Here is the input.
Amino acid sequence: MKPTAGAANEPSADGGQPRYRLRLFVAGDEPNSVKARSVVSRVCDNHLRGRYELEVVDVFVDHQAAIEARVLMVPTLVVEAPAPQRTIVGSFRDEEALLGALGLSAAGERS
Amino acid sequence: MEDKHESDVVPSVSLEKARTYIPGLDDILEGGLPRRRTTVVNGGAGSGKTLLGLEFLYRGALIGEAGIFVGFEESVEQLRQNAATLGWDLLAQERSNRLFLLDGRIKPDTLTSGEFSLKGLLAIVSGKSREMGAKRIAIDALEVLLRLFDTPRQVRSELHALSDWLQQADLTAILTVRPPSHGPSPFEDFFDSMGDCVVRLDARVSEQVTTRRLRVIKYRGSSAGRNEYPYVIGERGFRTMPISTVGLRHKPLGEKISTGVARLDEILDGGFRRGACILLAGLPGTGKTILASTFVAGSCARGETVLYLGFEESEAALVGNVMSAGVDLSPHLASGRLRFLTNFPEAMGTEEHFMRALDRIEADSPRHVVVDAISACPRMGGKRSAFEYLMRLLNACKERGITVLFLNQLSGANDYLEISGNDISSMVDTAVFLNYQQCPGETNRVLQVLKARGSRHSNQKWEYVIRDSGIQILDAYVGGGDALTGTLRQRQEERDRIEAQRLACEIEAKELELKRLRLAHAQAVKGMAPRGDEP
Here is the structure.
């Protein structure tokens, strides 16, 4: 699946803000994966514009990537940067849950 | 595909089976695990279920059936190291693409939020299986992964998905599960229902010794051994021995072979019989080990192989001790015809002792096995265990036509039960009793054959001496109903010419007397004793 490096090349609005590198493992079009993709895309667009890279991996297409990342459950979001690395398994109950996991409090990020 | 192993196909049942190649297990499973189906292996901590799954794949890989191992508890490196202690080179199989180890441990940085499924796992194993042309899979400690799910409903739904996937996959699967330590698991029934075959492993401790038992709970479409079967984690892996099938395939006794002592061969009308169970019983210092070693050296010199199971002393100590009595075992050790397996009885349970011995018997195919001594075996974990060990060892040897020498160290009493040792007397074909004979001013050694199945033999007591050239049996004389030994025997020799005739008469009289007594006894037994004898 093509990495959707949404606006990652644009210069960051705020130089002090950390850049995010995310990998989302999905299984084709099954409902949990579809939901996770939409939640992750929305959060990236709304909160990380200009400072994230998102790669979406379909485990049925690239099982080797899943082996290397030790991803047995889908959907799984691996936050590779900023450190420390985190792994969030599941379709996310809501955006708040993902924001919390990314260390972005919803209120604080909105300008 | 199916042309390579005829033995894989069991003709009597329609169900095709995949041999595990685990010694003993295929007998219990009547051919192996159900091919292209799932077997659930249920067992607690330390029961060896991980090993069973891994060995199934490793042995499969050795015969060219590729396999995938999914482990949720141990790292790939740990698995390789554990396997290496059993002599399995997993890495070699991994490199030749016949084995793949998937590290399924949950990463410590993992959080969960919302719903998820095992599809990642299924994608990996599907992809890998296609790549390798896998035939086998083992999924180990699945319950660890299932802990990530919040509700029983989710767990059930995932198990259904896994079960469906396994059913359509062209793989023979082992799924190992550890039951919860307390209380019933809500999924236990479901796990069992996922398997066409369900095997339960049970490790319990009795008399400080771990005993492991295996039971086939169910086997859809096939019969299987219904008993509990002991198994061990031996030096080369998982081993089981179906007790109830032993004893049916004993080889008949073979030809006479030399005991290594010419006079003893005469006494036994030619020697020991090949494939017999021979008991050498005696007090400490009577020369049991020397007599056994003399037989061993003679057998090795004929080009035959011997396995010596030692429980009393080290290999070096034993070789040194018998060397001082003129028996040199070292060239036979060097040629590999003689192999020792020495362990303290307390070092492990009877099953492990047995399996280790069996490993060597299978690997080396010895013609003769010496057990030195059976009197040490109760220290493995009780009299009952010792009996089981010896019976099974004897059965294993009898099935293969291997001669067995049981040495039995007596504590003093000349009680026949003790001489025969651990209630195995009915299995003993030949019993030789070594004893001390107290005479005025000296103690001598005497030997007596108490039993020699299928042979004529002498019941006399024979004096013998242990010289630095080995065991030498001297002539025996019957006088006054007992054997004469040492100085008394020499005096007797001087009087020999004069007394010869009288002695001959006396012997004859004794034999007649004995005959009369036997007849009287036989009549008494039949209840046909003459009326005149009644009071």
